[in-house]
Amino acid sequence: MRALAAAAVGLAAALALVLTVTAIGPPEGTTSPEPLLTSAPAHP
Amino acid sequence: MRRRASLILLGVAVFLAALAPLLRWYAFPRLAKVPAGSYQTAVLEAKDATLVDYARMEPRTVPKVTLVQTLKGNAEEARKIRRETGRDVVVWDTLTHMNGPDGAMISRIPERYVFDAHSQQPVHAGGEHVDGTPVRRDGIEYKWPFLVEKRDYRYFDMQTRTSAPIHYRGTRSFRGLDVYYFEQTIPWTSVPLPKRMPLGVTPETVRQLGLERWYTTRRMFWIDPVTGAPVNGEEVHREELRWTGHPEKKPITAFAGHVKMRADYVDSTVALVTSQRRLVLLLTSWLPWGSAGLGGALAALALFLEARTRPRRAFTGQKTHYGGKTERQAPGKRAAWSRGGSP
């Protein structure tokens, strides 16, 4: 019974971690202020 | 104490074992996406190219033609489309600017490409265009999906404004990376003229001269199979101005050249892709396999500890009840094997 409880806690923790991380997700970001280039830069 | 340790180990083992498939098949498809605000440039060059001189309407050989390509993620527009459609999209406003050897503009073609941030499939949310003309893509452009498959894809061609298969031609080694090589050939096709051309030439001017633009290309991409990002691109590109209704008249070569990515841009692209592929591999391979392996090892250790605990109780005659209490031993019945741990 205790083993089952320990396994359930482990499973719940894994689910909680993955669901939280995916819910937060990566940062959205903003549009770059850099222009659309019309000439070749000297270097990248 | 040993029993508690084995229970904790079992809990951690289950946590890690469950984490492995969850990371690979639940977290990765949701977390891996093209950033909405990405900004990338690429410079491609064609050495000893042929270019039309619009003043004399004659082709001439020039030492170098440069293509400057900018991809700019429009994060605000992506948010707006997500609110409207519920889909996580990326909106790329791009500009392909072609310059002659003197740096003067030869043509400029802006584009808007809207695609799913996770799958890279085109999303039809309005506003997609090539050079101001609305288009409806059914193929990828610029970037392949994450975890590229060894198969043909449909790739959008900006000049013809249609999608056609781009063929997988095998795995190659490129700057230390194993990459997938893709190739697409667009046969001679009549295509629209760019709206912006040098010397104030307009598509209408060219039409009035009785000319139309035809184009063929063979495009090659070396794609990192993990991120789906091109690490190199080349095109053998030919354009002609043909006399409308007069196939017997010799066409004017408008452009002919082998366009290759400039070496410093290849270096920077390879460096960028190498760093990005580590993040993808972390979610698809390293973390899932690592946690599965560690989970298995901890489960084995938990079982081992449990196995060591049980025989000792049996030999000592102790019986553990739920709640942690042990039965009191009868006087004089101390087991001889109780010391020294398990047999």
Automatic annotation (TrEMBL), chain A:
InterPro entries in the record: SPW_0924-like
NCBIfam families attached to this UniProt entry: small_SPW0924
Protein name, entry field: SPW_0924 family protein
Native species: Streptomyces hiroshimensis
TrEMBL record, chain B:
Name of the protein: Membrane protein
Keywords: Membrane, Transmembrane, Transmembrane helix
Protein's organism: Streptomyces hiroshimensis
Transmembrane segments: 286-305
Annotated segments matching region Disordered: 318-343
Pfam families referenced in this protein's UniProt entry, alphabetically: PorA (PF11271)
Xref: InterPro entries: PorA
